[in-house]
Amino acid sequence: MKRLLFAVIAICSSLIVWAQSQTIYEVNVNTFLNVRSYASSSAKVLGVVNDGDKVVVQEIKGDWAKIEYNGKSAYVGSRYLKPVKVVPTKDVPQKKKNKTFGGFEKSLKNLRGAYNVEWLAILIALLSGILYIIRLLRDDDCLEGNMYVINCALFLLTGTIAIAYFIFADDVIWFCSPSTVGWLWTIIGFIIFAGVAYSQLLCFFDVLCDLQYNGRGYFDHRCGLYSWGALIAGEIIIEMFSINEDYKMYLYIIFFILQLIQIFIILLGIVPRDGITKGLLCVLVYIVGSVSTGLIVTMFIAMAIVVFIALLFLSGIGASSSSSSSESSSDSEPKDEYTELDVPGEWNTRKVKHYSPSAGYDQYGDRWENNCGTWEKKS
């Protein structure tokens, strides 16, 4: 039994080594093959490779092959590839490693596509929900003791995960992409995203208040927060009106200076009363909280503007189509006009519409007569 087990392991190892040595593959499809951000048929499509194209395969796992695409790692269906060149690992000339960087530049270049971090969005939503529940339980009072520590740690964790998600996620708003999750989940995702942005903003203010209360100090945080608002507004204005990108550099420089001033204000308000450790903790929470909150709120505002414009566009289309349909209806079915004949009981050979107290206005006939008179259609 052991010999059989060792033989199976040896065969599998040989197959793995052989598969990894096949670095160059040829695309074998009728038309083209989608290149995706990670190994899933629902992943974002980064581009396509055509039939006969050569690709460098880094790894094959099951139905998916990890390839190099535009300097990043991407994935294609492995069953559509065939090996065309065998390059044994021992024969590949090894480049001399840079002792200073150690291939850091290449690793950083491929890091974004190397990991599937889209699931972090769900974790951020769950943690934001917990923070919001704690906020409801605080009853407008500052937290103390264990609850203060737990709330502060959860906020730091949520902010750190949010920053990592925005840096490494290949598609930040995949949960609001109809082509990825469908229209129903797009609407649900947008609503959840609104809740996360709202919770993150309120919890950030609460944590700042808790830090001042427990640190027995006070610092004015308006300089830093107003600079975030100015940065978000400036970014939106520059993008919407296609202003020269050079203005962004001046915007970032002013923002960075204001943030340094805010950090100095925090240290000045906490360190003299509660020491350098508590002051550095306040600075850490402020930096992580402001960056994560700024990213989340900025992304949500951008999405909200797009949704608002789309709704205006759709409402305009609906109004114009309704107006055109009413106009066409009035053109095709003009309103009838009637005149009363002076002589009651007179016969009329044309179809006429008349009023009847019992049947209303929808009675048609060759004639109609009663004490109210006869009505005839105008020519």
- Trace the largest sheet across and list its strands: 6-5-4-1-7
Cα(first) to Cα(last) distance is 104 Å
Morphology: globular
Can you tell me the number of structural domains? Answer: 3
Roughly what fraction of the amino acids lie in strands?
A: 15-25%
Computed CA radius of gyration, to the nearest angstrom: 35 Å
Q: What order do the helices and strands follow?
A: HEEEEEEEHHHHHHEEEE
Question: Biggest sheet, open or closed, and with what strands and sense?
Answer: 5 strands, antiparallel
Mean pLDDT: 75
Counting helices, strands and paired strands, the structural category is alpha+beta
The stretches of 5 or more residues where confidence is low (pLDDT under 50) are: 1-22, 86-114, 332-379
